[in-house]
Amino acid sequence: xxxxxxxxxxxxxxxxxxxxxxxxxxxxxxxxxxxxxxxxxxxxxxxxxxxxxxxxxxxxxxxxxxxxxxxxxxxxxxxxxxxxxxxxxxxxxxxxxxxxxxxxxxxxxxxxxxxxxxxxxxxxxxxxxxxxxxxxxxxxxxxxxxxxxxxxxxxxxxxxxxxxxxxxxxxxxxxxxxxxxxxxxxxxxxxxxxxxxxx
Length: 199
What we know:
Elements: E1 2-5, H1 10-21, E2 29-32, H2 40-45, E3 53-55, E4 61-63, H3 65-73, H4 85-114, H5 122-140, H6 152-167, H7 169-174, H8 178-187, H9 191-195
Parallel strand pairs: 1-2
Antiparallel strand pairs: 1-3, 3-4
């Protein structure tokens, strides 16, 4: 399999984290791409020109991190997404929450980096900042429901908080979320996290 990714993409990092944690990295060739200048190969795998995109051995391609994570999770007998019951929905809800946090952070970063200051929308930037802080504070009160056994929930949250640490560290401080900070201080030391640090 071939994974097209950007080293700074939190969505691609989530996929890479899952692959590393499951020991699937030996089966995946990673190809770094610049999404501002998508290659023919990337566009053939995902016409949207976005990462991550996973080209399978049969020539088919999957894109969007939730879809790729579900596919990879089924390649062995040690699932990081519970197969059924409430636990499955809880893990998927955590993933959706972490991905939404990432979406707001990514949008805010792109607004700040891609537009001249005079063309930026302060109300929109404030809304995204508020979304991020509100979501972090929500997670802060529910962090214990993650549990100790590694799941996709942990991976998605680790990728989201890692992106905030990388691009918007001031919002982590403004949110006043000591439990998240303490959890992340431990989680970020996992070999998979260290191997996928953005930059």
